[in-house]
Design brief:
The structure is a homodimer of 385-residue chains. With 385 residues, chain A is α/β, with parallel strands linked by helices. The first copy, chain A, contains 14 helices and 13 strands. The longest helix of chain A has 19 residues.
Chain lengths: 385, 385
Amino acid sequence: MVIDGVGGLPHPETGKTELESAEKPNLDRIASESVCGLIDPVGTGITPGSAPGHLAIFGYDPIKYSVGRGIIEALGIDLELKPGDIAARGNFCTIDKNGIITDRRAGRISTEKNAELCQLLNRIAIAGVETIVMPVKEHRFVLIIRGEGLSPELTDSDPQQVGLAAKEIEALSPRARRTAEIANEFVSQARGLLGSAGNNIPSANMVLMRGFSRRPDIPTIPEIYKLKPAAIAIYPMYRGLARLVGMKLLPAGVNITDQMESLHRYYGDYDFFFVHFKSTDSRGEDGNFEAKVHAIEEVDAALPNLLNLNPDVLIVTGDHSTPATLAAHSWHPVPFMLRSRWCRPDNVAAFSERACLAGGMGRFPAVEIMSLAMSNALKLDKFGA
Amino acid sequence: MVIDGVGGLPHPETGKTELESAEKPNLDRIASESVCGLIDPVGTGITPGSAPGHLAIFGYDPIKYSVGRGIIEALGIDLELKPGDIAARGNFCTIDKNGIITDRRAGRISTEKNAELCQLLNRIAIAGVETIVMPVKEHRFVLIIRGEGLSPELTDSDPQQVGLAAKEIEALSPRARRTAEIANEFVSQARGLLGSAGNNIPSANMVLMRGFSRRPDIPTIPEIYKLKPAAIAIYPMYRGLARLVGMKLLPAGVNITDQMESLHRYYGDYDFFFVHFKSTDSRGEDGNFEAKVHAIEEVDAALPNLLNLNPDVLIVTGDHSTPATLAAHSWHPVPFMLRSRWCRPDNVAAFSERACLAGGMGRFPAVEIMSLAMSNALKLDKFGA
């Protein structure tokens, strides 16, 4: 059970964090029956993005297995990627008659206009490859280049500031030269199509590309752990990450109640479930302390419908902290608890940052969670004789 | 704020460590507003010298970035080294007429006699290089060999015991052959000069050389962290280490009061300050428990004049422990605290070994301090999307 961004910081008036402020009898009861601790998703002082935060929880060294920006954007709109596909993030932008960028986001055009423009860009034809353009939100889109022998080792065209022209995309290694030509050809054709009177949106007359990347070659959870894993996540990016590591995607509905129902329905069909709860992170990023507290209470209220399944091993943690006072992801360690018949309980009786400090796991790297889970499920052999 | 050797061990009568015995209201108040913990400067069970202890605090892996004995001695007398300089530590010693060492320290001659003998050795001339001999203390001196194409890959001449002759200095790699010849020529000329009647100190009639080393090629703090760092340290070795990592050296006066005044004077000109307090370590090495307690109280009394600057991030720790009962550096973890608007306070309300055990950082490697400091200063980007 991943409660996204669950870790927090004290409210300046009460001195209590979001977790310490919430009414959460179920989380606290689990804590009293668990071995508790605090995880570092990436490392001391490092603020994790959602991808490295989740990869670490799933047992992958988040430094070794990095997921590029283009891939993240593609996962975020539920695009199914094929091996070898190159993905990049695109911005619709505005340039003047000399090609100088005047607005990197083309006035944040509507998602509907974005979809129209993507239709236009899907007319682009480049010999030997297929290019697929999909809208994300406002000015953001994803480009997929599909074909043989492509490489993501490319520079960005986005200079990251106005007053400059878009940069030529360059190959960072000889094997990426053809892909660089293809990417530049895409940009050139895009400029032609967008700049023509026909598109009726003269403001968004150019594209800026960045984060060319390929799906990382990552061993899957079934391969590594011989598990049959499934994900119950509502938001596309988390579903995408789950698929990346070999999880089957199950229906998740629209809220935690739906997710718990799905868990019940499929409980006999899989032996590992990843349930993702998003709004703790969203309310933290909003800077809304009270709303984050309520989101925690919403999870807590849904837990009886998980506990009645009596899982062999139950883990509750987060992929990173998102303190409402900071209104952003942060580097702070994240409360963690694992309950199983074979865990060694400690004296922790509440699920919070301060309480978990006294937990049996202490502070430890999130990447170690999976081996702890496996051992508590009695699925690991003894090491050595 | 580095309180050198601050960690200790319990007094056999009171059962309290030096920190637990001191009256230190300011340190304790900072602890109650901080995230606390215990650092391992090098690793479990490893007693750090001052150089690795400080390098770790400054963010350098002390195993990877080792600073040779010769360089340490040179830094310790404030010698400014040029790139390529080879430094070695020398002992004045006594040999009999067969060249057998009878006293490795020549009766611990006075520092004044040492200076006279160094004058004598500065007459040595070797083609193609410059040799510089500088007194340290009692029988110890530093030799600098300055020139092109030198290598520090040399064996010691010091056999580390009496009853043997000084060893020939040997090259450990082919590229060090010429430097080995130069070093042996230095020893040969030194023996000639010291052995002649003219020096009037027949007891110190030979030199023993060890720790040939070169200034490590170390990326600086401005390069790594884009900081503008300054050091306020009284003792030469710490100033030398600070300069090695790219810190500007500021006036430090003669005591902690002077140091705090310097901090105030230059506070607007830099964004990182290293303040070094020495006498906790010195009194620990003396084995003087009470004096070390008083040294801690001296730091504590100076702290209000630091706190009134209200730094964004304040870190107080030590480079290693120096328990007075052991009268030496030790391997014990060192209390640590970091105060910032964005730290997550724990329940620790005192700055001591036992209290910090319950801290939010737990026990952690000192080399991680800098990333924690940078994140608390909101100077780091998120890792991954």
